[in-house]
Model the fold of this input.
Amino acid sequence: MIVSVSRRTDIPAFYSEWFFNRIKEGFVYVINPFNRKQISKVELTPKTVDLFVFWTKDAEPMLKRLDELKEFNYYFQFTITSYRNDIEKAIRRKSDIIKTFKKLSKIIGKEKVIWRYDPILLNEFYTKEYHYKWFEKFCIELSGYTEKCIISFLDLYSKTKRNTKNLGLKEIDKNDMCDIAEKFAGIALKYNIKLETCSEEIDFSKFGIKKGKCIDDELISRIIKCPIKVKKDDTQREVCGCVKSIDIGEYNTCKHNCLYCYANFNYDTVEKNYLMHDSKSSILALHLIGDEKITIRDMKSIKCEVNQLKFKEL
Done:
């Protein structure tokens, strides 16, 4: 099974000690975000986990402990944008984040560190020209340290509108999207970085940009060196191309406090949950109170059985 760590929060940046403790214990409890009484027990062993996908804006806390993952396969989705602390409230200096990205790439290989420049938003300060300038600066820095960059445009959900109401955001229309996609494609090509989109309906194939899969079966097969069989994730939006995975994070726990965040609904709740966090707990932030139903999650391998048999015969 593929395990996502995590779309809901930045576990590498804020909860890496907890994660490594869960690896040692061999399991984690994951609360259903829509029903706190439903708990899944997810086994985290080399036998049950085909691959981890890590999502982060700062992998620095994990770098010295990657040897603890030597029995596992994994790759990183690593976000670096050009926003300042008016939008990304608690991110370290981008120059330091880039150093971390490069160190990670040198340790695990550039094919396993996917750069994300998303979400793209526009206002009077963060103009298209602003993005062009900084995207190229980042391409110069990251060329040779990644093979791919994933882009997306901000979706203004109700909570996102509320958190960004003072930013004077400009609605991004299809013309804006095409302008940005075409310009980014030209820049990325110069630095040998492949561009893909995340959960975008619009087709940018004429610019050489394909619809991406952040949890990507082709990349996973390449990393684990085995053909795999896994369905599209039907719990994600229709335009999302990701294949099925289990996410072990919790909403309202990410301390980056980015105004565009889809996973934090209330920053007071984030602070409360963070204070509740215990790195030795079997669950990320919330505590079990005894009335929950715990179900062991089915962790069927995505590796093709026919090929497994052939490998055994060899």
Summary: DSSP finds nine helices and eleven strands in the chain.
